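Can anyone check this?
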Amino acid sequence: MKQEIIVVNPKELEEKKRKITKEGLDKLHIVADFDKTLTTLFLPNGNKVNSLISILRNGNYLDEDYVKRANELFSIYHPIEINSNLDFSEKKKKMHEWWEKHFTLLGEKGLDKELIKKCVEDIIKDNLIVFRQGVWEFVNFLDKNNIPLLIISASIGDLIREFMREKGFLSDDIYIISNELNYDSNGKFIGVKKIVHVLNKDESAIKNFPKIYKKVEKRKNVLLLGDGIGDVDMVHGFEYDNLIKIGFLNENIEKNLEEFKKHFDVVLTGDQDFSFVNKFVRDIK
């Protein structure tokens, strides 16, 4: 798979970098997707990585009926998600419908905190999900320089948080905006606080999370990292001064390159590591 660094408008990018560098790291924060952005698409053995939520769906954590019904939902709604010919508002409605049904099913089948923990333990033990090479260096740099990293994901926030904690990647400057689960006094899942799916990241705007917003409201320079067109909406509603968007175009490069170039300042093709991103943040310092 061909790996390229494609800078869409070099002059414009350099001007943005100059402005951000002049104001320094104290004015910067990072907004990133999780699955296939911070993590790789392919494992070292060549196998394709599943998302966190799909591992829960296909694993041995709930009963066979759950697996059957969850995959039936996937077979119905995933084709809608990837169909570029459908009306966006209709797709968005269907994605909410999918997540709503899936979370109802998880409640019916007895998801609890222990199952979340067991799922993450298996992911780490079997190396099912891997951070991109260089992400540890990236997170460590942000931590040392007190730069907030906002992870906005359509996955389950509890899974992301537990996975990052177990891998030693979770610091005080990392904030996760995702599907946060509510539990009863026995640790049983009873509902989700707010549904976040791949097409409503604009509705999960930073301003809707006051505690997080307070951490970044004066940091008007933003580096956005994503692997899909919908990820550019993660900064929706935030009044930034300078925004640089880096897109990881992991596969189907020829098919999607022109669309990525319309939405991102830099396109990294072929499931790349974090070398470019790390150099960018180091250069600001």
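Reply from J.R.: I decoded it. The CA atoms of residues 227 and 248 lie 5 Å apart.
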